[in-house]
Amino acid sequence: MDIFGKYRWSGIVRKIILSSWPFFLAVLVFLSTKFAIRNSGLVEHYFSTGIYPFIAKLFSSFSKLYPFSLWDIFWVLIIWLVISGLFLVVFRKMKFGRYLLRTAQLLALLYSIFYMVWGYNYFRPKIEKRIGWENPKTDEMIFRSILDSIIIRTNYNYIPISSADYSTIDMLVEESYRKNSPELGINYPNGTRRPKIMLLSSIYSKLGVSGYFGPFFNEIHLNYYLLPMDYPYVLAHEKGHQFGITSEAEANLVAYIICVKSGDQRLEYSGYLSLLVYFLRDATQMKDYRDYLNKIDTRVLRDLRFRQKYYPGLQSKILSKMQSTVNDSYLKANNIDKGVKNYNQVVSLVITWYYNSKIY
Fold first, then answer.
1. Residue 143 has pLDDT above 80, yes or no
2. How many structural domains does the chain have?
3. What is the reported pLDDT for 288?
4. Those residues with Cβ within 8 angstroms of residue 109's Cβ, 6 or more apart along the chain or in another chain
5. Contact (Cβ atoms closer than 8 angstroms) between residue 213 and residue 154
6. Within this chain, do residues 202 and 140 fall inside the same structural domain, yes or no?
7. What pLDDT digit, counting tens, does each position of 230-244 carry?
8. Is 316 in the same domain as 168?
9. Distance between CA atoms of 195 and 349, rounded to whole angstroms?
10. Is residue 68 domain-shared with residue 157, that is, in the same domain?
């Protein structure tokens, strides 16, 4: 083979390598997730409490410099690139095969980056095992006792919450995380957490999304239309995700504990009110369900009824159902067997926490 033939072949090999490395990386990441599912202890030791806190500190120290959402802008740019590529194909400025290759490369890279910067946390041990809690047997009497306690404390802590309180609430949530992190097995400070408003809050409201965590930039997002009574709890929930808690039920539990152990009435009310919703949902099957409703303070009932009408009024039934279906598939694909039902599993986790804390 002459020298020109060698250059030709080396050029072909180089092109193949350059075009295929995102797919090789994605395959390696995919295989590593299968290994991680079976080795949660290693994930906890090397990633969740080893590599991830460094990633969180690095990424959040950058994203906190900007008051707007880098995550939202990033996805707008990604969508714009995909659509622009389609226009180039239509106007014959790009071959369709090249467009498909570039799109597939992009998706492979996004998939890989997601797990490397946060997603491996899905495979860490459950919170009961991480903290060493004993799981109590299912007992309706314990459920009733805790439901009664939550109703009493929700009534007692009732207080109107204003959006003017948000900056103070953020500091109080952060302080509660600092104080309660040892009990919850949380690696504090794990970087910084600057809450940001979703740039597309109206669209997310139609989808039924009140908040989310953006892993690529380690950002916490809250919906502009979130009710003030829910703000402390949702903020604590999303901060839980930033600490590497991927399970929605676990994030709900942590948000509850952070709120009710904060020492601030606004946070406590939000925490008890949010958990009351989950407990009442499970209590609907009980014959004396109405008796429990009658124990709730009229002001609290007014808040519950208002939020019951408010959020559905913002949602699009079709878009909300689509979002729920996509989220269900996403959670199940990431080691959350119950999918969207995982949110309501917070009831059993709260019972476990009460049981181990001996406070019911």
1. yes
2. 2
3. 95
4. 22, 25, 26
5. no
6. yes
7. 999 999 999 999 999
8. yes
9. 26
10. no
